[in-house]
Amino acid sequence: MSAMAQTTQPVVSGADGGGAVTQVPAMAGGAKSSTAMKMMSAVRSSATVTGIESHDREYLSVNGIRVPSVHSADTTSLFRRSLGFSTYSAGGVSALPVLNGFADDRVATIVDGMRIEAACPNHMNPALSYIDPDSVSKAVATAGITPVSIGGDSLGGTIEVERRDPLFAELGKVLVTGRMRGDYRSNGGGSGASGSMTVANDLLSLRYSGSYSHASDYHTGGDGKQVRSTSYLSFNHAVTAGLKKDNHLVAITFGQQDIPYEGFPNQYMDMTNNRSTYVNGKYKGDFDWGTLEARGFWQRVDHAMDMMSDKGGHSSTTGMPMDTDSRTAGYTLKATIPLGRNHTLRLGSEFEHNGLNDWWPPLVGSTMMGPDTFHNINNGHRDRLGHYVEWNAQWLPRLSTELGFRNDLVMMNTGPVSPYSWTSMMSAADAAAAQKFNAASRGRTDTNFDVTALAHWHALDSLMIEGGYARKTRSPNLYERYAWAQGAMATSMIGWSGDGNGYVGNLKLTPEVANTASFTVTWHDPVDHAWEVKVQPYYTYTHHYINVVRIGELTNGLSKLQFVNHDAQTYGINASAARQLWKTAAFGTGEIRANVNWVRGQDLVNHSGLYHQMPTNGVVSLHETFENWTGRVEVTLVKSKSTVDWIRNEPRTPGYALLGLGGSYRWRNLTLDASIENVCNQKYYLPLGGLSLGDYKATGVLSPLAGMGRSFNLSLSASF
Predict the structure, then answer these.
(1) What DSSP designation does 319 have?
(2) 668: which of 228, 232, 587, 604 is 20 to 30 A away, CA to CA?
(3) 137 vs 466, which has greater pLDDT?
């Protein structure tokens, strides 16, 4: 079944499943069994999830066009051509996702059913950093009006990423299958390898998968300057055991990720170690009354930050050690109950516990960072209990609706904290802040409600209209409420925006409440889908949007900021078009595709732009498929960024155009994929890249973060 099952109407195939199919390059493992076929969906608009389903082991297929995999080690790259999607630049495998202008914690990110919170004051380990792209079999981004069954405690949308289900052999047979892949990227000397192997009969299945990825600092286009603090090294291992009996499936995955180091060019710190160990269990069963899905999970994260060599290095007497320990545990239950032929009821329950300790050990011989341990978050926890009901109804053959209601109870608290010193003059501001924080009542309980109402009308064979309204609520994260320090150095260690400012939490914060109205119009060829046009306007008004106000200045001219509730609005339009140009035996199939995204966000109190809103951008691409060959030429266009958040000193960036070429060839079980990114070696600055603080540390020049120059990429994969 395709990802179109998430739409508001009965599952159907092709464009009739609820909108345009949008290209999203991705790479997932494969196998000989048809059940191993990779499946991925692109961004679901306000009322649409668009689907992509592979037709072989090495490629994804969009309207018959095979799309080769991406070469990035970052799983967010799977969505890079999706409507309304962009990323906050961060480490090489740790970009933060953005949907329709809402980023990071405002996007519910779920990996194998686990809602994973970042365990770091700089959000260096977001949820998508815990899974490598090669392990992904399904990735769905739902922007705007999100069904309550996948959208609690978030505003902008939901991203769901899942590994492959276990594979099983036919009755009486044994299945042995696997896949290997290696890749190389010239810019930064990036390399990677991944593989998986499954041994199974018709009842039991056992799979191992692993990956490795590495890169040194990359270089910009034009002058070829090195961008410091962009190197990384990552390892992933996972073992999945499965049991299938009749209509029931049980799977359990044990996994571990190690990132020995990862540079962050727009942060004062780097990640010097991150180890995640997790267990994830899944059950799915079909009964006479419907289907039941259940998950249980546990994850431990041990995280360390300090300064890598680009920022001066670290030793027992230099740098600034910062440690974080996180525990996440929870469950999800979902029952799908058909109510006759035209109505379906979904009931669900979720619980998630996130415990966090964040402490900064003293530095030997330092009067500023010692003599005691700095406790930033001490025995903090954020527990969320959610329940929902969702009703899908097919009123007429061309008219369906979805109505959902959700309640989330968010309970937060933290223990007493302490500065590096209670008596030192250098810690005076932090000592006073700690005393005030410890004397305050810190426990908070938020009762949040979400409502979603959608309608889908297939007005004509060639015209579909979807639209609706959603009320979404998000409670503050632990750092937004409990980052207590007031000293310039300590506050500059808090913040995930890459802007170099310092941040202070606020115990008075209340949950954000977003009201979104949106609709999608899709006009397409009703016969063979040779052309399609889609337009998606949306508007969101957010009460108590968590933004910032200035409360001080840092010595480098940047600001000390405190989180506060303001009202804000976000609005925009996403659009896409596709046209088949030729389809002949002599030249194969050719298609041109284009998309454009435009978003604006405004703080209605500060009267500033919201931070990191992507300027108008789009992609025009030409694709060809001929027998075992696929090729593409694409131009990425980004307008200059002139609307900025002046409160955060957000830099303006010039517009740019990038040319990319790529192609792949498949021979038997081997697939060779090659591409050239930024063919013209254009120098450009990333609109959502923040400030290049790694370069600032070395040169004293503060500038926006520059993008990667020309890169020759190559990958070879084999399946058996």
Answers:
(1) S
(2) 587
(3) 466
